[in-house]
Amino acid sequence: MSLQSWHITYRGSLSSCNYDCGYCPFAKTSNTRSELQEDYKSLDQFVNWVHQRQEQIRILFTPWGESLVRKPYQQAIIRLSHAPNINRVAIQTNLSCNLEWVKKANNAKIALWVTYHPSQTTLEKFINKCTYLFQNNVRFSVGSVGLKQDLGLIEQLRILLPQSVYLWVNAYKDKPSYYNNSDINRILKIDPFFDLNHKNHASLGEACFAGETSFMVNHNGDIQRCHFIKNKLANIYDGNFTQSLKPRSCNLDICDCHIGYINLKKLNLNKVFKNGMVERIPNLKIYNISGE
Ligand code: SF4
Ligand code: SF4
Q1: First to last CA, the chain
Q2: Which ligand is nearest to the CA of 22?
Q3: What is the pLDDT averaged over residues 242-267?
Q4: By alpha-carbon position, which residue is closest to atom 5 of ligand 1?
Q5: Would the CB of 21 count as within 6 Å of ligand 2?
Q6: Boundaries of every domain in the chain
Q7: What CA dihedral angle connects 261, 228, 60 and 140, to 10 degrees?
Q8: pTM attached to this predicted model
Q9: Over the stretch 187-242, which tens digit does the pLDDT of each residue have?
Q10: Options 3.20.20, 3.30.310, 1.20.120, 1.10.3470; which CATH number does 5-287 get?
Q11: Where are the alpha helices (DSSP H) in the chain?
Q12: 206, 257, 263, best to mutate for ligand 2 pocket (most atoms within 8 Å of CB)
């Protein structure tokens, strides 16, 4: 088999968060010390495994909750960022952690997928953290759930962030037809790529990189093709697991989340996101948005 580029999402057993967002099942949940130790052990095993692979790998950590406040996750990202076969290592985070650790990472390879939670932090505190990342040349995207009551704050955030930092808005989909045309036009001024997320992409029978060059790994090393189709394909710690990676088509009706639909071949999103696929940073030049 020829060596491939892999896009891996990793989700360990950690499931806890220091924030308290009203819509989230992980709000103010905690893990016991022994649960955390177990999670860190699995994380270490995964990082060691990555170091032993020959493939070029992009990783996105998608924890159940907030893991970047935990030092072992910061250290894992630092270690991975120095591995020659890593193209990108990124993590979803609320950015509440101390950010000193980024100075030890290879900032050509790390990236943060940052979510702003207006009910949990002030705009000023949040912008200060983003400024720190910006000044330390760390790649990051910023985003928020597009609740109508938060749009004013998200607009302010857009004004305060450097123009070159992409600000995404996730469509709130729990209520059907939540947005009217004027809401959508307002959001498009913040996030010119909002349509991509607002849409539920028809995926049944469509060719998808998930399960071929993209897959999700859990704390045991079990892999699924993506977060949304739960069948176990194989385990990365079995020597011959690569035999399970092959072209596949989706068996769900829709794919409506960035970490899923970026894999849909028909959308050709490699063109839009180029090397920012994992951390959700599009090529802003497509919309003539200049970087700084
Ligand atoms: S920060 Fe994220 S994981 Fe934590 S409570 Fe809010 S939405 Fe949930
Ligand atoms: S289209 Fe989405 S749900 Fe279907 S296999 Fe691909 S990533 Fe998974």
Answers
A1: 42
A2: 1
A3: 97
A4: 27
A5: no
A6: 5-287
A7: 50
A8: 0.95
A9: 999 999 999 999 999 999 999 999 999 999 999 999 999 999 999 999 999 989 99
A10: 3.20.20
A11: 33-52, 71-81, 123-135, 151-160, 181-190, 194-198, 258-261, 270-273
A12: 263
State whether the beta carbon of 117 lies less than 6 angstroms from ligand 1. Answer: yes
Instruction: Give 195 Cα–ligand 2 centroid separation in angstroms.
Output: 18
Closest by CA position to 151, among listed 159, 162, 163, 140: 159
Instruction: For residue 18, give the ligand nearest its CA.
Output: 1
Ligand closest to CA 28: 1
Residue 292 has pLDDT above 50, yes or no: no
Does residue 118 contact residue 150 with C-beta atoms inside 8 Å? yes
DSSP result, 36-92 = HHHHHHHHHHHHHHHHH--SEEEEEE--EE--TTSHHHHHHHHHHHT-TTEEEEEEE
Instruction: Report the range of poorest mean pLDDT among 46-55, 109-118, 278-287.
Output: 278-287
